[in-house]
């Protein structure tokens, strides 16, 4: 070695660091197919991999369905009668006569003498049947926002008496509406497709049950779509068992500036024979102003493929719901995935849904271990601490700021 030569010690190069795969919130089928082809070319044995121990070749039950299993909305729409609507009005008056804060709306304070038994049967459909139903229709225009909140929380308490918080400030109602103009000054207004007119791709909300009350519909678009997690599981287990391994292992969920920066848990769980797919694509790809945090580990190519596989299989088997003004849609979010199309509002038609998260403790599936802490936090808000925002707001952190 001459005196002029220098020895360079290899240093970690940015190019060697794992990079976030080429994947975004909006699924791109061509990229998905290309990624699958690339991965199978690298390892053609992937489809022959045995399933992880304890994971069955198929899951079964009424919640494992395909869109073609449903032919008519009368199969899932429950039409309220005039007598039942009168019961609801009497229950509102009864609750108001008690003079209690809204957090105390419940089965006892919102009595429904005959409708209660029907709602109990429908709750059984959520956990032991197809996993969804629509209650039609609440004459929403005749009520004040406060009365609507009482009515909505009251009816829903007969479906599931456990009520989940929507954010860290114990808001129990979340407004799903295009807030990009009205809340443009707040951070987070475009970091979640729920606050835009954009499409929301397949995902599941946290918690057991989701209720969505439509108080106004869009001028066009916004179709709700549901898909069975069990059906998606069965097809992946049959065609790509290697991706069942990927889905049941830990993933790094972006907490978008939280501390720590990310959480770790699986996307797929089994409980009491049910496949539970619990994820939101934006936690792995980012969305809008909330892009995947650069200082947290990227997802892997296998995870990127699995994310797209979940989406495209859910889409393939999905059922469209005709969601009308005055409808309440109830969904088992443990067993079903949901999505909505993009939409257009006009002055008379601004899509506005109000969401509750619920749980029926008597009927609930066993919460998978890694989700227990989250569920506990969600459903443990005492009545006096529950907040019912009657107007739209962006979900907040504990200090009151938006993300
Ligand atoms: Fe959702």
Task: Report on the architecture of this protein.
- The protein has nine helices and 19 strands.
- Helix 2 packs across helix 4 and helix 5 (229-239) packs across helix 6.
- The protein has a single domain (26-385), classed as Clavaminate synthase-like (Double-stranded beta-helix), CATH 3.60.130.10.
- The relative contact order is 0.22.
- 26% of the residues lie in helices and 19% in strands.
- It is globular.
- By secondary structure, the protein is of the alpha+beta class.
- The mean pLDDT is 92.
- Strands 1, 2, 3, 4, 6, 16 and 19 form a seven-stranded mixed sheet that branches.
- It has helices spanning 29-42, 82-98, 115-128, 145-157, 229-239, 241-248, 282-285, 301-316, 372-378; strands at 77-79, 132-136, 162-164, 174-177, 200-203, 209-216, 220-221, 224-228, 251-254, 262-265, 268-271, 274-277, 286-287, 290-291, 319-321, 328-332, 336-340, 343-344, 352-359.
- Strand 11 (268-271) and strand 12 form a beta hairpin.
- The chain binds fe (ii) ion (FE2).
- Fe (ii) ion is lined by residues 203, 205, 338.
- Fe (ii) ion (FE2) is lined by residues 203, 205, 338.
SSE topology:
Elements: H1 29-42, E1 77-79, H2 82-98, H3 115-128, E2 132-136, H4 145-157, E3 162-164, E4 174-177, E5 200-203, E6 209-216, E7 220-221, E8 224-228, H5 229-239, H6 241-248, E9 251-254, E10 262-265, E11 268-271, E12 274-277, H7 282-285, E13 286-287, E14 290-291, H8 301-316, E15 319-321, E16 328-332, E17 336-340, E18 343-344, E19 352-359, H9 372-378
Parallel strand pairs: 1-2
Antiparallel strand pairs: 2-16, 3-19, 4-19, 5-17, 6-16, 6-19, 7-18, 8-15, 8-17, 9-10, 11-12, 13-14
The structure holds fe (ii) ion.
